[in-house]
């Protein structure tokens, strides 16, 4: 019996050679082709790209054969390419959609299959369900055209997506002040697709760029996975001090997420980074427009929305919710707790490269280092503290959810519970305006427990209580 393919918050991921096989990638590509053919004619173009994981380029070629076999024309990247660059290429090439072979920040043994719409953004939940429903049960039912034949007939074309993306970045921001600022930027692309991109964009001037972990290594040494949070960036944080850098910029495996370290080697978490980016656009660049946030990210955005009189929209977790809402509201910025941020006049897709450039521009325009920028943000919205625990669980998920529903806590971390939101998981509002969120991973048997609070000394207690609410013994 064929493996049942289920799309999570951002496509399908699996373990290479177990469920992530060439046969299953071809089945996914066939399902995506069937989905597109409901709305677009044959001979339409699609874009396919990939990351630096094991065999990614060959999985991408397999997907291209299937798209060609279903009547599409394919632009496939010449080399491993950042996710935001792939997404922008869909718009630039006027393609009807795209496939990205990447497992993003997952462990080394995984790979993934992301799909994107004509806007370069994540496909909404209804669209993902439709794709799942038309994935054939067997590879024998997949249409495909051999790679050599498709290339000879001009149905598969290799291209370099970098020049068009670089022109787009220049339209969004003047890079010369950053190039000439003379700051020292340490960049950690986490052995992934972000390698070399900051040099391409802001190199050649007085600003110094030092890169680490910038070659292909699918085993991702010195980190558990290419996710731009501690402990995966501990080596990079130490290197920031060793190199006397002014800032650390980290992109995850496919460069759609951003991590930041300050000049003192301290991590600036994703919620604070989102607060900084929104403040930068509103205050420093004088922009105006909606903010889209997932329910797992910071309340600092709600405070900024009130101060600057802009609407703030909250969605479920994942860009399959954020991207459609950004398009609907012409949002200035959209983002999520995982460190992914998207921007207006670009694509409704996370872009760790552009987000990093904006942080550098914020430093240059204000003359402040990251720790000082954070102090400025807190002067406006107050200090906020965040942390998260991911825990594997055994047994039935529905039974675990029933435990959470039955818990009915009156207080968490010594703070009164003032409400419960079950839009996506179980989000308990707390009396200080903070929150505790318990939700299940869409791709792994993992419970995620998150919190944001204005009480630094209560973070650990809130998370411990969250584990207890979920019926998990910390010991």
Say what oligomer this is: single chain
| Number of E-state strands | 21
Shape: globular
Q: Quick one: biggest sheet?
A: 6 strands, mixed
Unreliable spans are: none
Structurally, the number of domains stands at 3
SS element count, helices: 16
Mean pLDDT: 95
Q: How many angstroms does the end-to-end distance come to?
A: 39 Å
Name of the CATH architecture of the largest domain: 3-Layer(aba) Sandwich
DSSP strand content: 15-25%
The CATH class designation of the largest domain is Alpha Beta
Structural class assignment: alpha/beta
CATH topology of the largest domain: Alpha-D-Glucose-1,6-Bisphosphate, Chain A, domain 3
| Helical content band | 25-40%
Would you identify the CATH H-level superfamily of the largest domain? Answer: Alpha-D-Glucose-1,6-Bisphosphate, subunit A, domain 3
Sheet with the most strands: spatial strand order: 1-5-4-2-3-6
Gyration radius, to the nearest Å?
A: 22 Å
What does this structure look like?
The longest helix is centred in the first third of the chain and has 16 residues, at 22-37. The protein folds into 3 domains: 12-163, Alpha-D-Glucose-1,6-Bisphosphate, Chain A, domain 3 (3-Layer(aba) Sandwich); 173-381, Alpha-D-Glucose-1,6-Bisphosphate, Chain A, domain 3 (3-Layer(aba) Sandwich); 385-469, TATA-Binding Protein. Helix content is 36%, strand content 21%. It is built from 16 helices and 21 strands. The chain has 475 residues and is an alpha/beta fold.
């Amino acid at each position: 019996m064929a493996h049942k393919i289920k799309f999570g918050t951002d496509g399908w991921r699996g373990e290479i050679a177990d469920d992530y096989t060439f046969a299953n990638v071809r089945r996914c590509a066939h399902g995506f082709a069937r989905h597109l053919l409901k709305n677009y004619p044959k001979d339409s173009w699609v874009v396919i790209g990939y990351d630096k994981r094991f065999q990614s380029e060959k999985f991408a070629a397999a997907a291209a054969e299937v798209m060609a076999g279903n009547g599409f024309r394919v632009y496939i990247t010449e080399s491993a390419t950042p996710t935001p660059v792939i997404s922008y290429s869909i718009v630039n090439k006027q393609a009807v959609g795209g496939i990205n072979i990447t497992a993003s920040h997952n462990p080394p043994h995984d790979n993934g299959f992301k799909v994107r719409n004509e806007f370069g953004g994540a496909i909404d939940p209804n669209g993902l369900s439709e794709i799942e429903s038309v994935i054939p049960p067997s590879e024998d039912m997949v249409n495909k055209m051999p790679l050599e034949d498709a290339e000879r007939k001009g149905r598969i074309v290799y291209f370099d997506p970098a020049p068009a993306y670089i022109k787009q970045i220049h339209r969004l921001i003047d890079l010369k002040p950053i190039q000439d600022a003379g700051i020292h930027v340490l960049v950690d692309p986490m052995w992934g697709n972000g390698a070399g991109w900051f040099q391409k964009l802001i190199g050649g001037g007085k600003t110094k760029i030092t890169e680490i972990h910038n070659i292909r290594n699918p085993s991702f040494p010195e980190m558990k996975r290419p996710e731009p949070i501690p402990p995966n960036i501990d080596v990079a944080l130490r290197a920031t001090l060793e190199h006397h850098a002014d800032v650390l910029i980290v992109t995850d495996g496919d460069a759609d997420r951003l991590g930041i370290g300050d000049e003192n080697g301290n991590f600036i978490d994703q919620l604070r980074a989102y607060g900084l980016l929104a403040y930068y656009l509103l205050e420093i660049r004088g922009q105006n427009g909606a903010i889209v946030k997932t329910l797992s990210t910071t309340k600092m955005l709600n405070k900024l929305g009130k101060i600057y009189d802009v609407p703030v929209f909250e969605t479920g977790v994942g860009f399959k919710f954020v991207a459609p809402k950004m398009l609907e509201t012409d949002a200035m910025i959209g983002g999520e707790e995982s460190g992914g941020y998207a921007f207006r006049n670009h694509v409704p897709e996370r872009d760790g490269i552009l987000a990093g450039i904006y942080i550098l521009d914020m430093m240059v325009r204000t003359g402040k280092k990251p720790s000082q920028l954070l102090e400025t943000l807190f002067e406006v919205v107050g200090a906020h503290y965040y942390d998260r625990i991911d825990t594997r669980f055994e047994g039935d998920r529905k039974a675990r959810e029933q435990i959470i529903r039955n818990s009915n806590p009156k207080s968490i971390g010594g703070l009164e519970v003032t409400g419960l939101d079950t839009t996506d998981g179980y989000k308990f509002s707390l009396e200080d305006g903070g929150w505790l969120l318990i939700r299940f991973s869409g791709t792994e048997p993992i419970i995620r427990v998150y919190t944001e609070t204005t009480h630094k000394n209560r973070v650990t207690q809130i998370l411990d209580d969250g584990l207890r609410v979920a019926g998990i013994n910390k010991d």
